[in-house]
Amino acid sequence: MSIGKRIGKTVYIHKRYIDRLDSEYQNMLQLIENKNKEFYNNLLDKSTIIKFDSKELSFIECINFDKSLNPQIRKWHKFSFENDNFKYLGFKTNSATNPLILHKKELMVCNDYDGFSVDLAKKWDNMLFTSNILEFSEKKKIGRLKYWKNAITLFAKENKIIYDNFIKEWEASFNKKVQ
Description:
Elements: E1 5-7, E2 10-14, H1 23-35, H2 37-46, E3 49-52, E4 56-63, E5 72-82, E6 85-93, H3 118-129, H4 145-158, H5 160-178
Antiparallel strand pairs: 1-2, 2-3, 3-4, 4-5, 5-6
Helix pairs in contact: 1-2, 4-5
């Protein structure tokens, strides 16, 4: 599979591209659908991202996936797999005070994705991840909104013109779609 954000053996992919998944991942989805089609369709309808690894799958609901540069995760439903069986592990709702967020969302879609500018999302990530705002020892914290907002605030202070121009460009890319 050439699409999807990869972290080790874990793959994050937008639900729009599930038909392009490797057969291993297609089979995981098929098992759930075969067991309870209505439940499966409901999960697929509400989720934005599907997270796979060799023995687990999660349907992830995001808040404003397209418009947010780093979307918040609202809730996820998790399944575990062993051989041709699966177990529904339930769902978790994200922390309201310091929610989990997604980074590098452009890797979860293909270049032809029309929900947001993939090129601008790449530019955002390159701008931030190549800057000095993220200390190596603190990179694990950026998956939480509070730390990420602090990092963005620092970046915006140190790079005001670059930051302001980028935000204007990002917002303008959505205004073009509305017209």
